TrEMBL record:
Protein's name in the database: Glucose-6-phosphate isomerase
GO terms for MF: carbohydrate derivative binding; glucose-6-phosphate isomerase activity; monosaccharide binding
Family annotation (NCBIfam families): PRK00179.1 (NF001211)
Active site, per annotation: 354, 385, 513
Catalytic activity annotation: alpha-D-glucose 6-phosphate = beta-D-fructose 6-phosphate
Record-linked Gene3D superfamilies: 1.10.1390.10, Glucose-6-phosphate isomerase like protein, domain 1
Transmembrane stretches, start-end: none
Biological process annotations from GO: gluconeogenesis; glucose 6-phosphate metabolic process; glycolytic process
Keywords for this protein: Cytoplasm, Gluconeogenesis, Glycolysis, Isomerase
PROSITE patterns: P_GLUCOSE_ISOMERASE_1, P_GLUCOSE_ISOMERASE_2, P_GLUCOSE_ISOMERASE_3
InterPro entries given in the database record: G6P_Isomerase (IPR001672), G6P_Isomerase_C (IPR023096), Phosphoglucose_isomerase_CS (IPR018189), SIS_dom_sf (IPR046348), SIS_PGI_1 (IPR035476), SIS_PGI_2 (IPR035482)
């Protein structure tokens, strides 16, 4: 059913009127006026805690935002996704990453097929394989156990497994070193190959389509390198594939016995829960991988049944929408105060920006409001010493999601309190800021004269009133990491529903791929690069000239 333009809905218009004043509210005053603000604007789900009280919202704002969620059909569309309806309209596909984490005793029939049974059959294969590699029963061609695993994939076939392996570092198998090669830039592969021994290395070629140019070239390079040290017959002990494309896997020379399938209803950026997570299962073991799935399932169940007022993904999405729409925030910064979540901002970039980086509705007309903000970030406290300056005093307001674990997974004394102190202090500073009068008083107390003090006041003033969310968990465990990722998946889904975009295609990546193929022919062949604009022609000519030096 075609949705009306969002600006034409009654709830959006009610929000617009409310925002006239509300967007100027001072959070300092909101906190001072209501001692219950923290308990009112916080929520628990699946082991996670979300504090969204440091946003320019109150209970009325949240109520109006939830009216909008209802009017846009978030609940019905959520149910359609969970039921396996083909909500990815431009590709005529269901969207069922949630089915990848359904327990074995559930059933979900899509196109006459029980997908839960299919999922668990592949999970069994992953369990068996990962157990054998981890125990040392799976041997390389010279009879030695595997010591290094190289995941070759890009986008969703890289960011998920890489981020999760890093995040669950403290659960990793001591013998297995994980490597990830994604870039077509040979330096990426080169840096890994120089560290590994062909006799003890397992390559996972991970690609949903098994046609992605970067992955295919990297896989061929790995294969040629391997065959310089071993025989064709040895390949089966060192190369496995993860894909939906059995024919292409066979054509590459990987025995389908060593292939871990998944399905077209799993989007690349939602695929870490599928066999794309094989690297994770190898690193942390199948038991923890299962716990990771269970944590995501707990968040799924919360998202599916919790009333919108207590629904964490919905609240996170709606507050994000408020900031984007009414405060004009065009970017969102992710600040994990956990070094093991180092790759989480990069993971969220693909999840959010590839899903909702769209400008037309499902019906093909322009969305009449701004859509997905730019998502970016870095771990705290490092980020504080790099770009937090701009977040505190720059001319744009950038909301921040702080993410932290209350307890560390290391036992080094003295670090964790300092980390958390910084995390909480930053959200406090973004909210309260520091007024000119406060700066003035400080400077005078330090003994500065009036002229000198006045000259410094504007530079040392913090506007404050800058929004942030804080997401806390007990420890970064497999289930809580699963819940965290699922939280953001569903947040992305809800925002896609508001904007009425298809969050599950990514046509925007295609044009560059086609043009790169053309230019590649020109760089490597005799074709004169004169079909382009003068800039592109000029760059191609420079590259060709340099290669002939
Ligand atoms: O897994 P693959 O089929 O190799 O795709 C890898 C990636 O490349 C594509 O260009 C898409 O933009 C991503 O959504 C996808 O995750």
């Amino acid at each position: 059913m075609r949705q009306p333009a969002i600006t034409a809905t009654a709830s959006f218009q009610a929000l617009e009127s409310h925002a006239v004043d509300a967007k100027h509210w001072q959070m300092r005053q909101l906190f001072a006026a209501d001692p219950q603000r923290f308990p009112k604007l916080t929520v628990d789900a699946a082991g996670l805690f979300l504090d969204y009280s440091k946003n320019r919202v109150d209970a009325t704002t949240v109520g109006l935002l939830l009216d909008l969620a209802r009017e846009r059909g978030v609940e019905a569309q959520r149910d359609a996704m969970f039921a396996g309806e083909k909500i990815n309209l431009t590709e005529h596909r269901a969207v069922l990453h949630t089915a990848l984490r359904l327990p074995r005793d559930k059933a979900l029939v899509v196109d006459g097929q029980d997908v839960v049974a299919d999922v668990h059959a592949v999970l069994e294969h992953m369990r068996d394989f990962s157990d054998r590699v981890r125990s040392g029963a799976w041997l390389g061609h010279s009879g030695k156990p595997i010591t290094d695993v190289v995941n070759i994939g890009i986008g969703g076939s890289d960011l998920g497994p890489k981020m999760v392996c890093l995040a669950l570092r403290s659960y990793a198998h001591p013998r297995l070193k994980m490597h990830f090669v994604s870039n077509v830039d040979g330096h990426d592969m080169d840096a890994v190959l120089e560290q590994v021994d062909p006799a003890t290395t397992l390559f996972i070629v991970a690609s949903k389509t098994f046609v992605t140019a970067e992955t295919m070239l990297n896989a061929q390079t790995a294969r040629s390198w391997f065959l310089r040290h071993a025989k064709e017959d040895d390949l089966a002990r060192h190369f496995v594939a993860v894909s939906t494309n059995t024919e292409a896997v066979k054509a590459f020379g990987i025995d389908p016995v060593n292939m871990f399938p998944f399905w077209d209803w799993v989007g690349g950026r939602y695929s870490v829960w599928s066999s794309i997570g094989l690297a994770v299962a190898l690193s942390v073991g199948f038991g923890y991988f299962n716990d990771f799935l269970a944590g995501a399932h707990a968040m799924d169940e919360h998202f599916r049944v919790a009333p919108l007022e207590q629904n964490m993904p919905v609240l996170l999405a709606m507050v994000g929408f408020w900031n984007r729409q009414f405060l004009g925030c065009s970017s969102l910064s992710i600040a994990p105060y956990h070094q093991d979540l180092n790759r989480f901002p990069a993971y969220l970039q693909q999840l959010d920006m590839e899903s909702n980086g769209k400008r037309v509705t499902k019906g093909g007309v322009p969305v009449d409001v701004p859509t997905c903000p730019v998502v970016w970030g870095e771990c705290g406290t490092n980020a504080q010493h790099a770009y937090f300056q701009l977040l505190h005093q720059g001319s744009d307001v950038t909301p921040i999601d702080f993410i932290a674990a209350l307890r560390p997974t290391h036992d080094l004394p003295g670090h964790h309190d300092s980390l958390l102190a910084n995390c909480f202090a930053q959200s406090e500073a973004f909210m309260t800021g520091k007024t000119g009068d406060e700066v003035r008083a400080d400077l005078r107390a330090q003994g500065l004269g009036e002229v000198e003090a006045e000259a410094l006041v504007p530079h040392k003033t913090f506007p404050g009133n800058r929004p942030s969310n804080t997401i806390l968990m007990d420890q970064l465990t497999p289930p809580l990491l699963g819940a965290l990722i699922a939280l953001y998946e569903h947040k992305t889904f809800v925002q896609g529903v508001l904007w009425d975009v298809n969050s599950f295609d990514q046509w925007g990546v295609e044009l560059g791929k086609v043009l790169a193929k053309n230019i590649h022919h020109e760089l490597t062949g005799e074709i004169a690069p004169e079909r382009h604009d003068s800039s592109t022609n000029g760059l191609i000519i420079m590259a060709k000239a340099a290669q002939h030096i």
